[in-house]
Design a protein that fits this description.
It is a single chain. By secondary structure, the protein is an all-beta fold. It has 2 domains: 146 residues, 7 Propeller (Methylamine Dehydrogenase, Chain H); 90 residues, no CATH class. Helix content is 3%, strand content 54%. The strands form 4 sheets. A 6-stranded antiparallel sheet has the order 14-15-16-17-18-19, with no helix packed on it. A 5-stranded mixed sheet has the order 1-2-3-4-8, with no helix packed on it. It has a 4-stranded antiparallel sheet with strand order 5-6-7-9, with no helix packed on it. It is globular and about 55 Å long. The two termini are 34 Å apart. 30% of the residues are buried. The mean pLDDT is 91.
Amino acid sequence: MVVTPDGKYFAVCDTNCAVSLFKKDHINGDPNKPIEWQFNGKIKSHEIACSSISFGDGLDKDGNPMHRLFSIGKDRRMFEYDVYGSAYHTQLPVLNQFIIEQEALPTSCIWYPLKDSKEGLILTSNNDYKMKVWNPQDKSSRKTCLGPTYGGEIIKMKELNVPGYEDKYLVYSTAKKVIGLIKMPLDGNPNKTMGLIAHPNEIADFCVSQDGRYLFTCGGADLSVKMWSIDVSPIENAI
């Protein structure tokens, strides 16, 4: 599940290769009715498993902020969906799609958090430990570099704003055991990443506190939730 920063939309991908969108609005768009979460649209876009979904920030033709929704799957494709073109209880329209891998399998994606470009970029990782930056509008790759190689490929990434540091970080998790940090911008420097064993087996999910000081991880079979204190100074010193 992913949620927009303004809390008006959330999207989910399921084991049936489908992506669904939900909106918080007046029932059936009637301003006289109460506001609640409503199912907005669904589409079975990927041929095989959907690996990850992400919301992005964009601008419409009038220059106003707009939400963008993306998904990647093991069919090696990236899809972009029309958030505003989906009506209540109807199909979720596809705006764009293109192939992002030839041999490797994409495993996770996130809207590229660094504002060093006027382009809207999205970051993906694959099971060959590579991280790639894409411009989905042009269907073109902007950068490919080595990612963390601790304990398996990245399956989930989230943005982290650390107090007192201008540069952004990413928190990531692998399918089993490992969580870690990546300093932005990406350049393949192994000293800009770290990883540690957080759980004895799978990591079901994780989240970061609003102030960027703590990380919470949720194990699967170990039935535990752990709270971690975040300290990026060792990474800064290593760089």
